[in-house]
Amino acid sequence: MGEEQRPQGDARRRRVQRLKRMIVLLVLVWMILPVGLSIVLLGKVRGLNRQIIETQEYLRQMEETVAQQVQMTGEEQQTGKEQQTQQFGRKEVIVTSPVDDQDIVPAAVEPEAAHKVYLTFDDGPSKYTEDILDILDTYDVKATFFVLGKENEHSLEMLKEIAERGHTIGMHSYSHKYADVYRSVEDFSADFYRIYSYILDNTGIQSTCYRFPGGSSNTISDIDMHVFADFLAEQEVEFYDWNISSGDAGSVLLDVDTLVQNCTADISRHGTSIILMHDAASRPTTVEALPQIIENILAMEDTVILPITEDTTPIHHIH
Ligand code: ZN
Q1: What is the Å distance from ligand 1's center to 244 Cα?
Q2: For residues 243 and 216, is the Cβ–Cβ distance under 8 A?
Q3: Do 68 and 204 touch, CB atoms closer than 8 A?
Q4: What Rg, from alpha-carbon coordinates, does the chain have?
Q5: Ligand 1 centroid vs 232 CA: distance in angstroms?
Q6: Cα 76 to ligand 1 centre (Å)
Q7: N or C: which terminus of the chain carries fewer CB neighbours within 10 A?
Q8: Residue 263 Cα to ligand 1 middle (Å)
């Protein structure tokens, strides 16, 4: 009897052991499965979190980009933001410090200063535009370019560059041919819309400032300049003459010292100084003098260099 039952007992033991192993295995699976799932889920949640943060950052930058396109301003506080926007535009740099909504400047507000100086360059783009832009960047200064309708590839590239680097683009007529521009209000209007569209099409900017070829006090136009000034006012475009002339448009090429002197000597006498210079192929000394002009102005007390915005007090030669 005992001999016969032994194999049966062995078989039972083996079954019990198999059962035990299965139970242990099941318990292990029940324990490991939730832990493993939790780890996977945690990873997913973290990934989503990161995406949300990145999306928020992206939206913030988009808001800034829109705000900047609406309002091209070179205000000191905005310099950082402009850089962020430009870098964002090139998709190179991730913004590390989040900017809260309060930081989005709703309109161009000029900083307070006893002396506001506006560097303006007429007649560009030219072969010197890039040099001028580089000098302005070196000193972190924004200026205003009153451009002409030049359709060649280099000019279009420079026009975009002026805008991208945060300077103000103003209109200086499309053709700059006095006889054509000032022939009649119709001719003036046609030329105005051409330069307006030229800037809009190539930069997306709706320019709101204008400089008359020869200034508003030119003696070339047979028609009273007030007629053209009224036309601009109807378009809600402001015109800007100047109260400081570099003198760089004369028949004689001025040397650097004279240009620096012309541009800077009278600034302390004015609350607003709009300086006339030229971005033109025939005016190399203007580019040579520019660093010294900027350095002298930056060294002046309570004086800031700004781009023209809708906040700028205009200088008019005619009243
Ligand atoms: Zn001009």
Answers
A1: 15
A2: no
A3: no
A4: 34
A5: 17
A6: 29
A7: N
A8: 17
Residue 201 corresponds to which tokens in the numbers above?
A: 């099409």
CA 86–ligand 1 middle distance (angstroms):
30
Collapsing DSSP to helix, strand or coil, 194 comes out as helix
* C-alpha closest to that of 247 among 232, 234, 264, 235: 264
* pTM strictly above 0.70: no
How many A from CA of 227 to the centre of ligand 1?
20
- β-strands 209-210, 244-245 pairing: unpaired
Distance from residue 230's CA to the centre of ligand 1 (Å): 20
How high is the mean pLDDT in each 10-residue block of the chain (319 residues)? 61 84 80 72 70 60 52 40 35 36 54 96 98 98 98 98 98 98 98 98 98 96 97 98 97 97 98 98 97 98 97 96
Closest to 145 measured CA to CA, from 157, 127, 129, 134: 129
Neighbours of 177 (CB within 10 A): 12
Beta bridge partners of 52: none
Q: How far is the CA of 146 from the centre of ligand 1 (A)?
A: 8
Going from the Cα of 36 to the center of ligand 1, the distance in angstroms, rounded, reads 74
CB 181 within 8 A of CB 191: yes
Smallest CA-to-CA distance from 292 within 139, 82, 97, 137 is with 139
Q: Outline where DSSP puts E strands in the chain.
A: 115-122, 144-147, 168-171, 209-210, 238-239, 244-245, 272-278, 303-305
- Calculate how far, in angstroms, residue 138's C-alpha sits from the geometric centre of ligand 1: 26
- In angstroms, rounded to a whole number, what is the distance separating the alpha carbons of residues 117 and 114? 10
Between the two ends of the chain, the Cα-to-Cα distance in Å is: 132
Cα 20 to chain centroid, rounded: 73
User: Which residues touch 44 (CB under 8 Å, ≥6 apart)?
Assistant: none
Q: Which two tokens stand for residue 252?
A: 């004689």
Dist. CA 172 → ligand 1 center (Å):
7
